[in-house]
Write a structure and sequence with these properties.
Layout (H helix, E strand, L loop, with lengths): L6 H6 L3 E3 L5 H4 L7 H20 L17 H13 L2 E5 L6 H10 L9 H4 L3 E5 L4 H6 L9 E6 L6 H18 L8 E5 L6 H8 L2 E4 L13 H9 L4 H15 L8 H14 L4 E7 L4 H15 L1 E3 L5 E4 L2 E4 L10 H6 L4 E10 L14 H4 L6 H18 L4 E8 L2 H22 L7 H13 L6 H13 L7
Helix pairs in contact: 3-12, 3-17, 4-10, 5-10, 5-13, 11-17, 12-17, 13-17, 18-19
Length: 476
C-alpha cells in the first residue's frame, strides 16, 4: 500500500525541473539566461509568489484548497455508478472536459474502452467535449443509453454546447426509460446554488455535486469536475490530491532556485519579454499527450489578456503550442530548430514507464537497423527526448524539461498543481487577471444572440450591422 505521507517516498516521486538548456552557459547569452540576470528578477518573482499566497483560498484562488477536500461522497457515488452502469459519459466542454480527458489518457489503460468488461473492471468512459452532430450520433452505434450514466458538467448551467448535449441525451433517456425513471441516469456537477442547471437538479431530483465557488473551469480538474469521472473509471483520486498537496507545499517555498513552479513562471515570462511569445509543450509519453491540451487552455485563457490590473490596454499573453514526442519530431522540429527564434520549449519526460519493451536483435547487415537490437523502446524514446533537447540547445533554442520519475496519480496531481501555480504566478508577473476570460464570453454572447436567447438583442443588432457590411465578392 502506498503511504502518500511518507517523506522519503514523496522525494522519490518529486517532479524535477531541469532548466540547464535555458541558461547562457549552455545555449549562449543571445537567447539564454545568466545567473546574474535571474538574480535581478528574483525580487519580482518572489513578490508575485507572495501575492498569490496572500490570496489563497479567496476569490478565484479557492482552487488552492482543493488538494485538502474530503472525497468520501465522491467515492461512494463512483462505487454506485461502477456497480450499475456499463458506460459513463461526461457532457462538458473546455475546463469541464479537458482535465478528465487528460486523466483518462494518462492513468487508464490506453485502450480502456475496448477492454472486456472483466478486464476493465468498471464502466467505459467517454467525454463529449464538442457538438459535431455526426460525432455525437455515432456514439449510439456503440452504446445503449439505458446502460449509461451521464454526468453533465457546467457551473453556470448556460453553456450552450453542454446544455444542448444534455437536452439531446435527456431526450434519449426519456424515450427509452420514461419520465419517471430517466433521472437516475443523470449526475449534475454545477454551482451549489446559482445558475440554470441547479433549478433543474432540484426539479428533476438529479444526483449532483458542486463546482466550488472561486474555482474556474480551467482550474477545476481536482474538484468533482475531474475527480468523479476519474473515480468512476477506477483512478486513485486520493493519490491525485496527495500529489497536488505535495506540490502545494513545495510551490510555497520562497526561494527561486528551489521552487519549480516559480522558476518555470519566471523563465517563461522572461522569454516572452525577450521576443519569444510561443510556448511549446512537448511530452515524451503518449499518455501525457492530452495533458498538453489541458495546459494549452490553462495557459491561453489565463494569460492572454487585453488589459492589465490598472485597466491599460496591453494585449499580452504567450501562445501555447501542443506537440508530442517522438511523433512531432517528424512534423514540427524542423521549424523549431531552424525557424524563427520566437519560441521557448518545455519537454515532459517519464523516467520509468510501467512497462519495458525490448527491441529484438536481427543481424540484417544494415547498420541503420542492426544497432537497435538489444536496446529497448524505452531507451529509444529517452534518447529521442534528450537528442531533441540537445539539438535545440545547439541551435540556441531555450528549452527545459519536467522530469517525472514515473506516471501515476501522485505525479500527475503534482504536475497539474505545479502548472496551476505557475499560471497564477505568471498572472502577477504580467500584471493581469489570470482568472477572468472576457474574450471567451464575447464569442459566447454572439452565439446566444444568433440562436435568439432573450437578453442578447443588442448583440443581435450588432451582428446584423456587420452582416450588412459583408460583400459577396469577398467570398470565393
Amino acid at each position: 500500500m502506498v503511504h502518500y505521507d511518507d517523506p522519503a517516498w514523496q522525494i522519490a516521486q518529486r517532479i524535477r525541473f531541469d532548466f540547464n538548456n535555458l541558461m547562457a552557459d549552455t545555449i549562449g547569452e543571445a537567447h539564454g539566461f545568466t545567473e546574474a540576470a535571474l538574480a535581478r528578477e528574483t525580487e519580482a518573482a518572489l513578490a508575485a509568489l507572495a501575492a498569490v499566497q496572500a490570496r489563497r483560498d479567496t476569490g478565484w484562488l479557492r482552487w488552492m484548497g482543493l488538494p485538502y477536500q474530503p472525497v468520501d461522497d465522491l467515492l461512494a457515488m463512483a462505487a454506485d455508478v461502477r456497480a450499475r452502469f456499463k458506460n459513463f459519459i461526461v457532457l462538458g466542454i473546455g475546463g469541464s472536459a479537458l482535465g478528465t480527458i487528460a486523466l483518462k489518457d494518462a492513468l487508464l489503460h490506453p485502450y480502456h474502452n475496448q477492454l472486456p468488461d472483466d478486464a476493465r473492471g468498471g464502466p467505459r468512459l467517454y467525454v463529449l467535449d464538442n457538438i459535431d452532430p455526426d460525432w455525437l450520433l455515432a456514439l449510439l452505434d456503440v452504446l445503449d443509453p439505458a446502460e449509461t450514466c451521464f454526468n453533465v458538467i457546467t457551473k453556470s448551467g448556460s453553456t450552450a454546447e453542454t446544455m444542448s448535449q444534455f437536452l439531446w441525451t435527456r431526450g434519449l433517456l426519456v424515450d427509452r426509460l420514461g419520465e419517471g425513471r430517466y433521472a437516475d441516469h443523470v449526475i449534475a456537477t454545477t454551482d451549489a446554488a446559482r445558475g440554470s442547471l441547479r433549478p433543474l437538479v432540484d426539479q428533476e431530483s438529479y444526483r449532483s455535486f458542486m463546482v466550488p465557488d472561486g474555482v474556474g473551469g480551467r482550474f477545476s480538474v481536482l474538484s468533482a469536475v475531474g475527480l468523479l469521472p476519474a473515480a468512476v473509471a477506477g483512478i486513485d483520486i486520493r493519490g491525485l490530491l496527495a500529489g497536488a498537496a505535495y506540490a502545494d507545499r513545495i510551490s510555497a517555498t520562497p526561494y527561486l532556485w528551489q521552487n519549480a513552479a516559480l522558476m518555470y513562471a519566471l523563465t517563461q515570462h522572461l522569454a516572452y519579454r525577450r521576443g519569444k511569445p510561443l510556448s511549446v509543450m512537448m511530452p515524451y509519453a503518449q499518455g501525457l499527450r492530452t495533458v498538453a491540451d489541458w495546459y494549452a487552455q490553462l495557459w491561453a485563457e489565463s494569460l492572454g489578456k487585453a488589459q492589465d490590473h490598472q485597466g491599460q490596454l496591453v494585449h499580452v499573453g504567450p501562445t501555447p503550442i501542443k506537440a508530442l514526442g517522438a511523433t512531432d519530431q517528424h512534423s514540427q522540429v524542423q521549424l523549431y530548430i531552424e525557424g524563427p527564434h520566437d519560441k521557448i520549449f518545455t519537454f515532459v519526460t517519464v523516467e520509468k514507464f510501467a512497462s519495458e519493451l525490448p527491441i529484438p536483435a536481427w543481424r540484417t547487415g544494415q547498420s541503420a537497423v542492426d544497432y537497435l537490437g538489444g536496446h529497448t523502446i524505452n531507451e529509444l524514446l529517452a534518447a529521442e527526448a534528450e537528442g531533441t533537447a540537445l539539438a535545440l540547445a545547439a541551435a540556441g533554442r531555450p528549452n527545459a524539461t519536467f522530469k517525472m520519475p514515473t506516471l501515476n496519480a501522485f505525479t500527475l496531481g503534482q504536475f497539474f498543481y505545479l502548472l496551476e501555480m505557475a499560471t497564477a504566478i505568471s498572472g502577477e508577473l504580467y500584471n493581469i487577471d489570470a482568472f477572468d476570460q472576457p474574450g471567451v464570453e464575447g464569442g459566447k454572447d454572439r452565439a446566444y444572440a444568433l440562436l435568439g436567447r432573450p437578453g442578447y438583442e443588442a448583440q443581435r443588432a450588432e451582428i446584423e450591422t456587420l452582416r450588412q457590411k459583408r460583400k459577396a465578392r469577398y467570398e470565393i
